[in-house]
Amino acid sequence: MRRIEHGLWTRLLGLVLALGATGPGAAATFALVSEDAPGEGLNDPTPVAPLPDNPGTTRGAQRRFVVEQAFALWGQRIRSNTTILVSVDFEPLPCQSTQATLGVGGPTSIFENFPNAPLADTWYPSALADALAGQDLDPGYPDIQISINSDVDVECGGLSGGWHYGTDARIHHATDHQYLMLTVLHEVAHGLGFTSSVFLATGETPFGHHDVWSHFVVDDVLGKRWSDMTNAERAASAIRYRSVFFDGPYTQAARKQLVQ
């Protein structure tokens, strides 16, 4: 079994397609690992009024409640008999006059050739590898790392009014981008494996081996999966607008339902 740690993984994040995931009889447990210092982020003591769908009375408590609710939603959708540890912190992230980075997230590690791995010499993100192996391959070490932009609560990228800390699924589209719930759900998806380990500038793969994501990413122009491309073809495909899609079995099934 081989493992790549987070320090390298942060350089490997590639093309990301935000998708949903389902599984019959699914159940998984997520555990929050706070990386915030006392008085900051999830521990921010700033008093706030509780919301109808968030009982927290401090900014930190409301943030924590949203994060845990997002974890619960994902837990209902996927299967794993090992606890998925998620490292979370709130910190200033890039803000420009008209745009902002709301959050960043991804796996802390990727593994290959572990027990029960469906494909040999193929990288799997930590949480997925644990689920397939039926054991924690790196006990006590977080599987996912997420950072949320704390400056959105000040004013960032033209966004005013700060994060919305509600958890009601009935969200008004005009302000979707400021719902913390959606950002956390999105970043957890990356951490679960909705991301690629390809070096985008060159199309190279870590140690010459593909990640499982690349086996299901198809370029409509070339008619090839990323796992069947040369490095140069992958590098060109990664920036080909609206021509790259995911065709995993659940996605194909959902597409058929929509078409019918």
List keywords for this structure.
4-stranded mixed sheet, disordered N terminus, alpha+beta, 25% helix, 3-stranded antiparallel sheet, 15% strand, 6 helices, 260 residues
Your description of this structure?
- There is one protein chain.
- The protein has 260 residues and is of the alpha+beta class.
- Helices cover 25% and strands 15% of the residues.
- The chain contains six helices and ten strands; from the N terminus they run βαβαββββαβαββαβα.
- The protein has helices spanning 6-12, 59-77, 126-133, 180-192, 231-237, 249-259; strands spanning 2-4, 30-34, 84-91, 103-107, 110-112, 124-125, 144-149, 217-219, 224-225, 244-246.
- Helix 2 crosses helix 4.
- The chain is globular and about 55 Å long.
- The termini are far apart.
- Residues 3-25 have low confidence and may be disordered.
Topology:
Blueprint: E1 2-4, H1 6-12, E2 30-34, H2 59-77, E3 84-91, E4 103-107, E5 110-112, E6 124-125, H3 126-133, E7 144-149, H4 180-192, E8 217-219, E9 224-225, H5 231-237, E10 244-246, H6 249-259
Parallel strand pairs: 2-3, 3-7
Antiparallel strand pairs: 1-5, 4-7, 5-6, 8-9, 8-10
Helix pairs in contact: 2-4
